[in-house]
């Protein structure tokens, strides 16, 4: 597949994106409307009322995917040029799944005043955009960058490695607990990985109702405790009380845990660690491309539910289940932020959708996309949860409309939106009709 990937990206035209016109340009009159002289008319309208930019331009359907290439997938700090194929890929997903026009922008910044220069560069783009998706930016810089940008800009700033990952993990957890019959407020959760994803997952779990005392977080050194030297403020937020100077290893910390959430490194979770967990353990091993433990090993060790970030294993916890629908709703309601209520609504939408049987055209699309799962009978029955199917498939075309509906509803109820949608059920259907041509 390595050679196929290079051929896929290098075949003419190179890359994965192009710009296409949304209006006809076939006659002299078309040209005069699209450009000089009559393009001056919307320019003057916008000059008189800046808000008309949403009426006369594509700003309301435009997102920038911004990265500095410092934390790209499992590749690390590879730089802005090397990160560009990933951002192009994300742009394709935005368009294909939610009809959002997203532009990849990889920034090169100087070593001095890095944060402030990053802030200045992103803020200068605001007149062109309806939202910003930060991507593959190293921690802890990504936390302060996202927080400040979202506060200082009038459009939402969403960091998908933080917020998107947290949404998907929460959705998967909601359904997994239903399968194993455990209560949310009585479980012990071990999060391995204290970067952007791990911290944000923990925060969203707390917003959802889990107490901080239920969450145990490990990094490469072991359990994060308050007696650890040189903790940054983000790790300190989830530090447990420690005794003495000895470090508690992952192997020790995981004992008795009900849930393992891995956003860390390959092969760090052993079968013996899984066996030391509570009954019917839930394993989310999301490291890519090699998970913290392979699903077959986790199952053999007694895991009741296993999810990974890979397409070739069941229960893929992938951010593409979240961000297209979240941004579709955010743009359609013209939000100024994406708040915790909207993130929880997205997670609950995914969890709810998983329990609904596939039918009709959607069933055909999903079964054709996942022949092995179809053969295994994963999609049979009225409630797929019975088959430990705890998160929707990416090619389930109900996902984006349902997420968009619930996020839009939460945005309006929480005061994050500036546009009201009167019929939210009709809106879900409209979104479905908008994206369906991409798959026909």
Shape: globular
Element order: H for helix, E for strand: HHHHEHEHEHEHEHEEHHEHEHEHHHHHH
Low-confidence stretches: none
Number of domains: 3
Number of helices: 19
Describe the structure.
The chain is an alpha/beta fold and 440 residues long. It has a 6-stranded mixed sheet with strand order 7-6-5-8-9-10. Strands 2-1-3-4 form a 4-stranded parallel sheet, sandwiched between helices. The mean pLDDT is 93. 42% of the residues are buried. The longest helix has 21 residues, at 160-180. It has helices spanning 2-10, 28-34, 40-48, 53-56, 80-98, 114-123, 141-152, 160-180, 196-208, 233-236, 250-253, 271-275, 295-300, 323-332, 340-354, 360-369, 371-375, 399-414, 424-435; strands spanning 62-67, 101-106, 131-134, 157-159, 189-192, 215-219, 222-223, 259-262, 282-285, 305-308.
């Amino acid at each position: 597949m390595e050679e196929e990937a290079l051929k896929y990206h290098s075949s003419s035209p190179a890359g994965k994106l192009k710009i296409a016109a949304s209006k006809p340009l076939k006659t002299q009159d078309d040209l005069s409307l699209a450009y000089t002289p009559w393009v001056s008319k919307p320019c003057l309208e916008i000059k008189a009322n800046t808000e008309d930019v949403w009426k006369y331009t594509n700003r309301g359907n435009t997102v920038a995917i911004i990265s500095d290439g410092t934390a790209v997938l499992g590749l690390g700090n590879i730089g802005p040029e090397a990160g560009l194929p990933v951002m192009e890929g994300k742009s394709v997903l935005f368009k294909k799944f939610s009809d959002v026009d997203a532009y990849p922008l990889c920034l090169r910044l100087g070593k001095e005043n890095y944060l402030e220069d990053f802030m200045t560069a992103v803020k200068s783009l605001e007149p062109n955009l309806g939202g910003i998706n930060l991507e593959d930016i190293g921690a802890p810089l990504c936390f302060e960058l996202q927080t400040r940008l979202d506060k200082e800009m009038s459009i939402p700033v969403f960091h998908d490695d933080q917020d998107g990952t947290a949404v998907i993990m929460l959705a998967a957890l909601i359904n997994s607990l239903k399968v194993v019959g455990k209560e949310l407020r009585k479980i012990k959760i071990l999060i391995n990985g204290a970067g952007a994803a791990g911290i944000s997952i923990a925060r969203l779990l707390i917003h959802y109702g889990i107490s901080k005392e239920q969450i145990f977080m490990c990094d490469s050194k072991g359990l994060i405790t308050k007696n650890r030297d040189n903790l940054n403020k983000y790790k300190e937020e989830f530090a447990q009380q420690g005794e003495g100077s000895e470090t508690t290893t992952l192997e020790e910390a995981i004992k008795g845990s009900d849930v393992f959430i891995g956003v860390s490194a390959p092969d760090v979770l052993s079968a013996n660690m899984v066996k030391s967990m509570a009954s019917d353990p839930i394993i989310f091993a999301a490291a890519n491309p090699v998970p913290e433990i392979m699903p077959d090993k986790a199952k053999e060790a007694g895991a009741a539910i296993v999810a990974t970030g890979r397409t070739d294993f069941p229960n893929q916890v992938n951010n593409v289940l979240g961000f297209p629908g979240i941004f579709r709703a955010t743009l359609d309601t013209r939000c100024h932020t994406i708040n915790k209520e909207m993130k929880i609504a997205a997670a609950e939408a995914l969890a709810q959708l998983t329990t609904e049987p596939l039918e009709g055209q959607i069933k055909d699309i999903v079964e054709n996309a996942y022949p092995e799962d179809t053969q295994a009978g994963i999609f049979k029955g009225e409630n797929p949860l019975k088959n430990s199917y705890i998160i929707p498939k990416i090619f389930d075309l109900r996902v984006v409309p349902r997420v968009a509906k619930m996020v839009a509803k939460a945005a309006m109820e929480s005061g994050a939106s500036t546009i009201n949608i009167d019929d939210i059920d009709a809106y879900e259907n409209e979104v479905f009709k908008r994206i369906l041509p991409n798959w026909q």
